[in-house]
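User: Quick sanity check before I run a bigger batch. Here is a single chain. Can you write out its predicted 3D structure?
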Amino acid sequence: MSGWSCPAPLRGRERIVLGHGGGGALSAELMEHVFAPAYGGRALSTLADSAALEVDGARLAFSTDSFVVRPLFFPGGSIGDLAVNGTVNDLAMSGARPAYLSCGFILEEGVELDVVARVAEAVGAAARTAGVEIATGDTKVVEAGRGDGVYLNTAGIGVIPHGVDIRPRRAAPGDVVIVSGAIGVHGVAVLSRREGLEFEAAVESDCAALGSLVADMLAVTRDLHVLRDPTRGGVAAALNEIATAASVGVVLQERAIPVPEQVASACSMLGLDPMYVANEGKLLAFVPRTEADAVLAAMRAHPLGAEAAVIGECVTDHPGMVVARTGLGGTRVVDLPLGEQLPRIC
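Assistant: Done. Predicted structure follows.
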């Protein structure tokens, strides 16, 4: 017990804690009170997964992300897959066609070269699958005991098609909320390997690049209002961020949210809520009601959206708040998490 730390301690601390990296309220406060005032700038103000920039008439999406997952290899993927797919997905959530990535390796002195090679091979394979090119990179080495084997940073550039305007503030009352498939799988897969847990059925990460799924959705209509991949903080954090940005309420139908039986069982055993568990191959879409059926059909026709489901809608009531209607007929608030249930999973 002496080595444990709380991922979401009481607020008001003067030092960084694990919860500041969890994608919840502590992360938002860190951005609001430390980074945003220090950086300034219009492009950062949207706080979306990627920045939409205009350069000589071309609309570009630009994103960066860092990956510190432990363990490096887990059922269904590795830190290399996460690094590529995570950045590709951030670009795709603005409707962009991902094109180029950078990749920086931060290595701990003493890590085996075979491990580094396996991670590099995973990065290359994931990039080829996603249809992007690793265009530049960097390597740094820190002293033994000052790292955790391998950390990765990736940044990416994509091209936003003409007529596409996807951002959190476009969520509007009447929008239908769609999720592309079962939630909670990635977090449970990483936890099972980290803690040596075994479940009745194997749980593998859903880590995947979503660019082709988004392209199929845009082929139906370019009037997609919001896309978001619910990574850190899970579906709950992503929906709360969107509701706050657009000043709308979100009402979910709890029974409509696809949660695999093995994920539900694992979360029940461990005292976790699947709504707050990270995903790495799923997206949330806010779509005008008139386009929802066609978009849902296109998603279900794609391998990465075969289990897509309508899970809720945007409303004018309770702006900035997400609520879920339970199977018993009640309503519960789905709040922004303070920190993170499962640290170091991406």
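The chain has two domains: 49-159, 168-333.

User: Great, the batch can go ahead then.
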